[in-house]
Amino acid sequence: MRVQAEKFLSLRALGAPAVVLSLALQGVLRGFKDTKTPVFCLGVANLAAVFLFPLFINYFQMGVTGAATATVVSQYIGSFLMIWFLSKRVILLPPKFGDLKFGVYLKSGGFLIGRTVAVLITMTIGTSMAARQGPLAMAAHQICMQVWLVVSL
């Protein structure tokens, strides 16, 4: 089971950028007071997954690899749909790269970036230490992480 789980998770990790992008785009669209578009895009992505799972797992005989591939593809579908809808409303990139003004963003959001990096490093180290203690400690750690996540959000 371990080999299959590693295969699934390693392929599934390719979808992480799509998940992060999707969460960011949902926030941007919420800023425009548009909550219908993210729901629609994620609904289309989930519907695509419903069709891709049996196609990849059974028809192409990919098994666990097919499940991971279907998940990743559906996540990118949702993200690209949100980008497409957002691009109809705003100009996503300025004409010149220098017009992006990264310094202004870092100045106003530097503390937030630092806090986020610190939380991620702490969570990664904690998860690593719990994993070294065995399955019971890791399970307890995951329960605590879920409770923390619910309370923090």
From TrEMBL:
Main location, first listed in the record: membrane
Membrane topology qualifier: Multi-pass membrane protein
Spans traversing the lipid bilayer: 12-32, 39-60, 66-86
Kinase as UniProt keyword: no
InterPro entries per UniProt: DinF-like, MATE_fam
Keywords, in A-Z order: Membrane, Transmembrane, Transmembrane helix
Pfam families documented for this protein: MatE
Protein name: Protein DETOXIFICATION 45, chloroplastic-like
Species annotation: Spinacia oleracea
